[in-house]
Amino acid sequence: MKPAPNSYKSTCCYCGVGCGVVVTKESNGQLSLEGDKEHPSNKGMLCSKGMNLHYTVMDQSDRLLYPQVRLNRSMPLQRATWDEALERTAAVFKTLIKKFGPDSVAFYVSGQCLTEEYYLVNKLIKGFIGSNNIDTNSRLCMSSAVVGYKLSLGEDSVPVCYDDIEAADVMYVTGANPAWCHPIIWRRVEAHKTANPDTKIICVDPRVTDTARSADLHLQIRPGTDIVLNNAIGRLLIENDYLDERFITDHTDGFELFRLQVMQRTLAEAADICGVPSADIALAAEWIGRSKGFLSFWTMGLNQSVIGVNKNLSLINLHLITGKIGRPGNGPFSLTGQPNAMGGRETGGLANILPGHREVVNAAHREEMEQFWNTPVRIADKPGLTATEMFEALADDKLKAIWIINTNPLVSMPDMNAVESALKKSRFIVVQDVSNRADTVHFADVVLPAAAWLEKDGSMTNAERRITYLPKVLDAPGEALPDSEILWRFAQKMGFEEAFNYKTTSEVYDEYVKVTKGTNIDVTGVSHQLLKEKRSVQWPLAAIGGRQSAVGSQKKPRQIDNATNGEVSTSHGTKRLFTDHQFYTKNKRAQIHPVPDENTSEPTDHQFPLVLTNGRIRDQWHTMTKTGRVAKLNKHIPQPFLQIHPEDAKERGILEGSLVTVSSRRGEVRVKAQITTDVRKGLCFLPMHWGKILGSNLVRANNLTSPLVDPKSKEPDFKFSAVQVALY
Ligand code: SF4
C-alpha cells in the first residue's frame, strides 16, 4: 500500500534489527511516526527507542549549524564557510601526506553512516589518498563475529533470516540481552514461544537480564567462560550421539581435532569453571541435540572479548557438528548492533577490507579495485590502523590527523583517559557530526555540521542482509549538509574532481553496486529505484541478464541464479544462505575450528578483585547523543549506576544507593550502588552510555575498561576489566 502523500517510509536508525517506520509530516508542521506494518523486519512493531525517533530531529537545540574552524586549540572555534572549512582541511591533509606519507591521516567513522557515505570515504582514502587508515566503531561491535564467520563459513555472511525464528524450537541466546537491545526480534521470539510452548529458550549470561528471566534455562556462567561451556556442550553432543555424521563428512573439515579438544575437559570440570550445575549444561545439550530448529543469537558478550573470535567459533562449531545450519530454523545468528554495520562492511568499511568484501592483503582484489576506481596511487597492501590502534598512533604522533564522522570515541572507546590524552596531543582533528553533544567537538580543529536521519537519503543493510532506502524528508537546519556531499566536496578539494563528481547519492550507489559484481555479496540487481519500489531486498541480489532492475519485475523471489551461493528464499520471500551446504570457503566446506578455552583477559588480583562488565540499558542508545535528548526515554533509568552483588557490597560496607568509587588500573568512576543478585558474586555491571553529568566525566564506564583486544579481530575486551569498588 502506498503511504499518504505527506508520509514517508524509512528505517529506524538505531539498531541492526532495521525496523521499517512511516513518518508523517502533520499539518501543524510536527512529525508523527509509526511502525511500518508492511516491513518484513518488524511488521509494524517498534520498541521504545524507535517509537520516539522523530523527536531526535524535531529538537534542534543541540544541532551543529555551520562549519567552524580554528588555527590552533588555544583559540575558539570560529564560523567559516563550507569552502573555507574544506579548503583548510584539504590543505592540512595535503601537507601532512606530502611530509609524512598517506598513513599520517585517518578516518574514524560509524555504523550509523549510510552505505553511500561508507563507500565514498573508503574510495577516497584507500583508492586516492593511498592509505587503509579507515576504521569504524563497528570494530568495537561486530568484528569478532566477522572473523568468526569468515574462518568457519568462508565469508562475512549471516546464514539465517528473521523468518527462521518461527521455524526454530531451541533458541540459544548467549552474551546478549535482546529483550532490551534488539526488542523487536525478541518480541517475535516471545510470540513464537507463546504459540509453541514447547519451544526452549536457553540464555547464557553472567547477569540476570530480562532475556534471562524469560528463558527456560539460564546458564549464569562466570564471565569469560563461554568457550568452556560451548566445548562442554560439544562434548555432550558427541557422547550422546547428536552428531550429523553425514553432514560432518560431506561438508566440514576439522571435526577430529575438535573432538580431541573438547574431550580434554570433563563435564564436571567445565561446570566447575563456568560456575553452573552440570545438569544444566547437560539439559542445554540435550535440547540442542534433539531440536529440529537450533537458532543461536549473540552480540557483545561474545564479540567484545579478548577471545571474541574463539568464542564465536566455539558457538558456530555446535551448528556444524550437528548439521544445524542452512535449514529452516537452524543457524548461528549474530545480531548486528548498529543500523548499518553490515552495509559499511559491504563497501569495505574496515581497515582490512575493500568493497565487495575484498581483502586489502589480496593482490588480485587490490588490482580489481585499482582498475575499477582508476586510482592515481596503488592501494596499500597492509591493513590500516584499527579503531584502538588509531588512538594509540595519535598518542605516539605516528598518526597526525584524524577525521571523526558520526561517532563519539570520547565515550565509546576503551581506556578513555588514554584516548583523551591522545586527542589532546594530536595535531589535527576534524569532527563531522549532527550534534554538539559529541564530546570530540571540544577537541576539533574543524567542525563540519552533518544532516541527520530524515535530512538526507541513502541506504542501509540490517542484520538479516536486508537493504532498505531511507528518503530525505526534511531540510537540514542551518548549513548542515548530507555526509555524502561533505565527502565528495572534500575529495574535489583534494584534487580528485573527476572521480568524485557526484550530484546524487543514487549515482554513488549505482557505482558501488557495480563493484560487487561476481562477489559473494553481488548486489548488481539493486538500485535506489528498485529499493523505492520494493521497499527492501536481501543480498545477494545479482542483476539478471545485465539489467540492474530486472529482478524487480520478477514475480517469484529469486532462487535460480543464486543456487551456487546456496541461497534460497523462504515462503515469506526472505533468504537464508548455505541451503545447499556449499560454503564460501575455497573447498566449499565449512571449517570446524577447535579453540582453546582459557580466557586471557586482564587478571583480577588483591588490588582489583572484582570483574566489571558493561552494557546497554533499554531506552538509551550508544553515548546518548540522540536518545539523551528525548525526555520520555530518559525517564526509564535517569542516572548511571553500579550493580553489585549483596555479599560484595556487604564486605565493603556499601548500602543500596551508596555513592561508590569504582577503580581499575586505568581510571575511576563514581556512581550510586544498586545491590542485586542479578549479578554474580565477584561481578559488577555499569551501563556504557553516560559521558558526562554536570560537567564531570566520572560516570564514563570506559574510564575503567581494559585496552586489551582480540588478536584476530582487534575488538576490545569491554566485558572483562579487573576493578575494585569502595564507598566514596
Ligand atoms: Fe529501532 Fe532496533 Fe527498536 Fe527496531 S528494535 S525500533 S530498529 S531500536
TrEMBL record:
User: Could you tell me the keywords of this UniProt record?
Assistant: 4Fe-4S, FAD, Flavoprotein, Iron, Iron-sulfur, Metal-binding, Molybdenum, Nitrate assimilation, Oxidoreductase
Enzyme Commission designation: 1.7.7.2
The cofactor named in the record is:
Mo-bis(molybdopterin guanine dinucleotide); [4Fe-4S] cluster; FAD
**Residues in domain 4Fe-4S Mo/W bis-MGD-type?**
5-61
Ranges of Polar residues compositional bias? 561-571
MF terms (GO), sorted A to Z: ferredoxin-nitrate reductase activity
Q: What class of enzyme is it?
A: oxidoreductase
Please list where the region (Disordered) is annotated.
548-571
Q: Which domain of life is it from?
A: Bacteria
The entry sums up its family as follows: Belongs to the prokaryotic molybdopterin-containing oxidoreductase family. NasA/NapA/NarB subfamily.
Q: What is this protein called?
A: Ferredoxin-nitrate reductase
| Portion of the full-length sequence here | 1 to 728 of 1197
